[in-house]
């Protein structure tokens, strides 16, 4: 699920950036350090929307670097158990399905039982139908059409468990 939350971050700035464009440099460094990262507490930071406050810098003794505390608002993506998400199937092999869900990759093993998997819904412009998982391994022969790079939605059952591989 996507959230719009307030966050804090500290920017460590080298003395060569001191000058008339100091605040713009702090903002740019915030964008590059924060956007696209993943934290366990908040999830994936998709985009920084507003910068609320850039605090007074604290000079680091003996180094000359300055530490700026920054308060900002960002859009984050934090998936939770049982959430229905759109996924793009990127690979199908003997082991299972590999999908991409925004910034993360998801692996669905062929050993997941039918009760745990639920159903897959194909998201296609030509037709949108519910396809039940047949009673055999998830291989290329299981799909009545080519699943590569197609859009799918996982519709979980109450006992839905999917093995996830988190990547950056």
From TrEMBL:
It is found in: Nucleus. Keywords: DNA-directed RNA polymerase, Nucleus, Transcription. Residues 79-111 form the S1 motif domain. GO terms for molecular function: single-stranded DNA binding; single-stranded RNA binding; translation initiation factor binding. The keyword Cell membrane does not apply. Residues 10-64 form the RNA polymerase Rpb7-like N-terminal domain. InterPro entries: NA-bd_OB-fold (IPR012340), RNA_pol_Rpb7-like_N_sf (IPR036898), Rpb7-like (IPR045113), Rpb7-like_N (IPR005576), S1_domain (IPR003029). It holds the Pfam family S1. GO terms for cellular component: P-body; RNA polymerase II, core complex. The keyword Transcription applies. SUPFAM superfamilies: N-terminal, heterodimerisation domain of RBP7 (RpoE), Nucleic acid-binding proteins. DNA-dependent RNA polymerase which catalyzes the transcription of DNA into RNA using the four ribonucleoside triphosphates as substrates. This is DNA-directed RNA polymerase subunit. It comes from Ursus maritimus (Polar bear).
């Amino acid at each position: 699920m996507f959230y719009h939350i307030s966050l804090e971050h500290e920017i460590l700035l080298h003395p060569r950036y001191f000058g008339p464009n100091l605040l713009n440099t702090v903002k740019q460094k915030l964008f590059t350090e924060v956007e696209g990262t993943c934290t366990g507490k908040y999830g994936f930071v998709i985009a920084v929307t507003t910068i609320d406050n850039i605090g007074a810098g604290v000079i680091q003794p003996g180094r000359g670097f300055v530490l700026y505390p920054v308060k900002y608002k960002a859009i984050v993506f934090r998936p939770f158990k049982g959430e229905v998400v759109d996924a793009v199937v990127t690979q199908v092999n003997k082991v299972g399905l590999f999908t991409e869900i925004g910034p993360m990759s998801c692996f669905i093993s062929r050993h997941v039982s039918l009760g745990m998997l639920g159903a897959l819904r194909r998201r296609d412009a030509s037709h949108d139908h519910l396809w039940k998982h047949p009673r055999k391994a998830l291989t290329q022969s299981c799909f009545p059409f080519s699943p590569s790079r197609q859009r799918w939605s996982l519709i979980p059952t109450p006992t839905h468990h999917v093995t996830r591989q988190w990547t950056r």
